[in-house]
Write a structure and sequence with these properties.
Length: about 190
């Protein structure tokens, strides 16, 4: 009887070990899939900057950097830093800035607004009113609320939508090549 109990204990431990490994593998796969999504979004953000023209007053005093800011929870990790490391746009070095509040938004040229800021989005956009800042998000409804470019997932692929009304307010010029790749949306109030 003791041998049977020992075999049962060993089998139970073995089953628990297999379940633990399966859970770890599934968790790792989910993390890698999410990381892959943000690698794609980081590459998109860098490439968006190539197809946008900012007014001259967006770079006072011969500003030598283009500030790409992230407001709120940073889901990019180091992928965004890697995507733009050593890169320039119109002879301006791209600099990543991570922000926890809205006090220095005017220093941004591109502002990624994290989904963690959803309840503050209206106030954030009011703060940006009149500024030439490319706003980017990845939360459902952000474009219709006034964010210029918003990522979404369709058929397991990262896609993006552009709010034409928000583009007009920001006074940025977006290349027709980029517009042709996007789903065009408007403010939800229209």
């Amino acid at each position: 009887m003791t041998i049977a109990k020992n075999i049962t204990k060993v089998l139970n431990l073995f089953v628990m070990l297999v379940l633990f490994i399966a859970i770890q593998v599934r968790s790792t796969d989910a993390q890698q899939q999410k990381l892959g999504e943000y690698e794609v979004k980081a590459a998109f953000m860098y490439n968006f900057m190539k197809f946008i023209e900012w007014p001259d007053n967006a770079f006072p005093d011969n500003h030598v950097t283009m500030n790409l800011c992230i407001l709120g929870k940073d889901s990019f990790g180091s992928t965004l830093d890697s995507a733009v490391q050593g890169e320039t746009i119109n002879n301006k070095k791209i600099v990543i800035k991570r922000l926890n509040d809205t006090h220095s938004l005017e220093k941004c040229h591109v502002l990624f607004i994290s989904g963690s800021e959803q309840e503050h989005l209206t106030q954030i956009l009011k703060t940006l009113d009149g500024l030439n800042i490319l706003t980017v998000g990845d939360t459902k409804g952000f474009a219709q609320q006034g964010v210029v470019i918003n990522f979404y997932i369709e058929e397991n692929k990262v896609r993006f939508e552009i709010n034409q009304d928000a583009v007009n307010r920001s006074r940025l010029k977006i290349s027709s090549r980029l517009l042709n790749l996007a789903k065009i949306v408007h403010d939800e109030s229209k």
